[in-house]
Write a structure and sequence with these properties.
By secondary structure, this protein is α/β, with parallel strands linked by helices. Helices cover 39% and strands 19% of the residues.
């Protein structure tokens, strides 16, 4: 199985917390779509050894594009790949773009999953981070998506400015009235270079404490678990049968091709990434050049990649899988593992090494103790 990721770096406006590569200027959209189609033609063989099973349009805000441009892109994908094995085709949307007509159009283009960034159902919290929709508009959009798609995801953020456990509870309770098949819940991160980070540095907003973050995370996890959702990755919860197949493939180190400015790719061995510049990207592709940069990794660094992605999930690392790596990696990993097991920070669950879910919010500290350094 392999995946195709398409990066759409266009948004109506930039959210205050966002550090993904995106722009509110849409004048380059036609040239950018043409460049991605050409990049697809040049690079499709990178993942041709396995059938294409998932397609994901992320960003940015793919729903901000004209449907005609989305149609042009999807048609090109159909010409470049055998899509008969594709089981999940996702498009990210924002509530303000969702209309019955839009949903009908993207469904006709082959999308069978929608991922919508709601983030909060408090107008105060939404305004604090520069979201363009209101809580009421988000609720309307969820209802429209639920009516049109069997499979969809709702994103929320906890730790927002002015957010309390009570307002988070209200957001989650109202979202769960729709019983979305999938929910993603992310802790707000103050990234340098964002407007929200500048506001934090100017003492205009307050970052929540570790104890508050743990309380909110624990609440979200407990509430969703009680509602029948499986907590299968640090930030992701799904009803039975509705795990994100595309994202799950990332965590299992399956190959994927990433197209567009700032997109990353992995062919099963080598990682590549494109420059975070629409101008540079279009110019390179128009000159007939693949513009990716190879992320040079030694074998021990690839082993660390496996640790970092696997321990994010409820599946963890199968001890039997260590046999496929050089013996010294497995030996060193096991020696570093024992103190963590003794301290209760890691468990051996019938041959699967896992971080207990109650420790997932601080899992980075645990992983740092396990990664190899030569």
């Amino acid at each position: 199985m392999s995946g195709l990721y398409i990066h759409i770096p266009y948004c109506h406006s930039k959210c205050a917390y966002c550090d993904f590569y995106s722009t509110p200027r849409a004048d380059t959209v036609p040239a950018y779509i043409d460049a991605m189609i050409e990049e697809l033609r040049m690079r499709k063989d990178e993942i041709s050894s396995e059938p294409l099973t998932t397609i994901y349009l992320g960003g940015g805000t793919p729903s901000s594009l004209p449907v005609s441009q989305l149609a042009k892109l999807m048609e090109a994908i159909g010409h470049s790949f055998d899509t008969s094995s594709v089981i999940e085709t996702t498009i990210e949307v924002n509530p303000e773009d969702v209309t019955p007509e839009f949903l009908k159009d993207v469904k006709a283009l082959g999308f069978n999953r929608v991922s919508m960034g709601v983030q909060s159902l408090s107008d105060t919290e939404l305004q604090a981070v520069g979201r363009r929709h209101t809580a009421e508009e988000a609720l309307t959009a969820i209802g429209l998506v639920a009516s049109a798609f069997k499979n969809y995801n709702v994103d929320i953020i906890f730790g927002l400015p002015y957010q309390t456990l009570g307002s988070l509870t209200s957001t989650l309770d109202r979202i769960l009235t729709f019983r979305p098949p999938h929910v993603s819940a992310y802790l707000l991160s103050y990234e340098p270079g964002t407007r929200l980070y500048a506001a934090l540095m100017a003492s205009k907003v307050r970052e929540i404490s570790d104890s508050e973050a743990e309380e909110m995370y624990s609440y979200v996890s407990s509430r969703l678990n009680q509602a029948g959702y499986c907590h299968y990755e640090i930030s992701n919860y799904a009803l039975p049968g509705y795990r994100s197949r595309h994202n799950s493939a990332y965590w299992k180190l399956k190959p994927y091709l990433g197209l567009g400015a700032s997109a990353h790719s992995f062919d099963g061995d080598i990682r590549r990434y494109n420059p975070s510049s629409i101008k540079s990207y279009i110019e390179a592709i128009n000159a007939g050049k693949c513009c990716y940069i190879i992320d040079e990794e030694a074998d021990w660094q690839k082993f660390n990649d496996m640790i970092l992605v696997s321990l994010r999930t409820s599946d963890g690392i199968l001890l039997s899988s260590l046999e496929s790596w050089p013996e010294r990696f497995a030996v060193d990993f096991m020696s570093q593992l024992q103190p963590l097991i003794s301290g209760g920070n890691v468990i051996n669950d019938n041959g699967a090494i896992k971080i207990p879910q109650e420790k997932w919010l601080t899992s980075n500290a645990v992983m740092r103790e396990l990664i190899l350094s030569y």
